[in-house]
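User: Hey, quick favor. My workstation is busy. Could you predict this chain's structure for me?
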Amino acid sequence: MIDQDAYVLREGTGTSGVIETARLAAGRLADHLIPHLIVGGVAVQEHGYPRVTLDVDMVVPDVLDALEILTADVTGPLVRLRGLEDRIKDSRTGTAIDLLPAGKVLKRGCKVPFPLPIVASDLLQIVDLEKLISLKLDNWANSQLHRLRDKSDVIEIILRRKLPRDLAVDAAVLSSYLEIWDGLRAEK
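Assistant: No problem, here it is.
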């Protein structure tokens, strides 16, 4: 899945290395039958809101296993970052990959766990729209000033995709989704 607007954005802003890095990681994981899901800014782009992102957020069943596989080749290009056990970097593109644990939440206070990826493929597996919206709203709700981008991502996706009010978002964030959706409707 490559959204045309996201492709144009990446080419125009010089951030196409983000996708190159994501594909490299997906391929290495697939070689070891480890599934993944792309969440975060790349998923936002692929779901219709082309905005700049400089890293890859990848959900995996086991962060330590994925870290070992992705950095097993000591000649690179994927390398560990000192002091960060869940982040690696592509030395060619400068793109960081944040490895996120399936079935767990981003941080204390969050209620929407990352989904369990089931497909091991060298093709990028993008999280479904409902889960992406749920994760974004959950992150924003638990850090409203630091994660304001998450709320604006949701707003832009609602507007661009003309999402319905009854979108099947997680119950933990349903009231936030409805408040945003109703607010957007009232501003028309």
